[in-house]
């Protein structure tokens, strides 16, 4: 069973003006599609890895479960496929977003003091990631929330990588230049600030509820 | 003498002097109040800690107009790349170096250590782009490689085309942000193709940088979008082989 590019849960223009439609189109049909194609090609010789499923493939990065000659390709493209599949779902029509509520809001306040303070930390992680990468809000093994950033297409599921803070992600932001350059050019902080307008807090809450039981929604 | 010397240093060097103004004023007051000899002895002992000279880097001018590399690299990209990206590396490097000097003066080793990431990112960014602008030339002035450089390329890769294909294959495969490099190995006397992540400078490998190609997405995205290989095909129309040859000559010295 080959991996497939998931459909976006909305139109390419839905996140305007915060994330432009041309970026969404290229990001989805070119960048994410390439990760899917490359992952399938790498796993052609290892069908048993395909059966692991995308989440467990990501968890296997940095372990001996992945054969040496495809380990890097799987890290880059398995990571890329999970990250973007996750990313499309934590965004939504800007008119939908009301901010966090319920259990996830309490958890945010417990970990960071307030939602605003969480955003400040998240923004710093996103702006401060040098080169390509992602910023994450996630649930750690002890059930607490934390913020981290990862390089390239790594993510917090890759617990066996030496520099990774292991977490189940509940919210993530792509800060590769392709995610914002057409509209924001070098102005990454402006992109990060605008992106909060399209965060799908319902999905974040669902991700959080699953993470508290140790499950990774996909 | 001390005041005049300090003013001379300030105005005649392109360095920034980090004062301890309070110490300076205390010295001057003492000089006036207590008599020249005593104050002079105290002032001379205060000089080493009174000021620190730190180097700052400057954004170099491009050797051509922003639009001069069209149609291979757009003027919009060149302007953003130079005025925003490279300028930010320069500004952030200078800031980090100033903070490092202050930390050194205080003996704050922990602080010095925490600054090394910023110095590496921004220092590398400055070094790399400083080289890059000189590695490019308007297409009307393009000349293919000749002489010893051509001979070395052909000795190793059979032909210029094969060199370019090999370089492009490796450089297109850079994951995330980074650079493709043609470098000179002083030990073996050979040319080498390699890639570096983020803004890590080639010099840390021991190779002498001759030609760099920036494959951070900001270097091509506005024009080529996700199609990095198209950018890599186009850029060879604006490579300044004369500059590459000059760098080779300098490297062999």
TrEMBL record, chain A:
Coiled-coil region(s): none
Catalytic activity, reaction form: 2 superoxide + 2 H(+) = H2O2 + O2
Keyword check for DNA-binding: no
A Gene Ontology term for the protein's cellular component: cytoplasm
Boundaries of every Manganese/iron superoxide dismutase N-terminal domain copy: 3-91
Binding residue positions for Mn(2+): 27, 84, 174, 178
InterPro entries associated with the record: Mn/Fe_SOD, Mn/Fe_SOD_BS, Mn/Fe_SOD_C, Mn/Fe_SOD_N, Mn/Fe_SOD_N_sf, SOD_C_sf
Manganese/iron superoxide dismutase C-terminal domain mapped to chain residues: 100-206
Name of the top EC class for this enzyme: oxidoreductase
Pfam families, per database record: Sod_Fe_C, Sod_Fe_N
EC number: 1.15.1.1
Gene3D superfamilies from the UniProt entry: Fe,Mn superoxide dismutase (SOD) domain (1.10.287.990), Iron/manganese superoxide dismutase, C-terminal domain (3.55.40.20)
Top-level taxon of origin: Eukaryota
GO molecular function: metal ion binding; superoxide dismutase activity
Keywords noted in UniProt: Metal-binding, Oxidoreductase
Functional summary from the UniProt entry: Destroys radicals which are normally produced within the cells and which are toxic to biological systems.
Protein family according to the UniProt entry: Belongs to the iron/manganese superoxide dismutase family.
PANTHER family: 37S RIBOSOMAL PROTEIN S26, MITOCHONDRIAL, SMALL RIBOSOMAL SUBUNIT PROTEIN MS42
Protein name (database record): Superoxide dismutase
Automatic annotation (TrEMBL), chain B:
Keywords, in A-Z order: Manganese, Metal-binding, Oxidoreductase
Entry EC number(s): 1.15.1.1
Entry GO CC: mitochondrial matrix
Compartments where found: Mitochondrion matrix
Main location: mitochondrion
Cofactor: Mn(2+)
List of residues binding Mn(2+): 81, 129, 214, 218
Catalysed reaction, written as an equation: 2 superoxide + 2 H(+) = H2O2 + O2
Protein name (database record): Superoxide dismutase
Domain of life, per lineage: Eukaryota
GO molecular function, one term: manganese ion binding
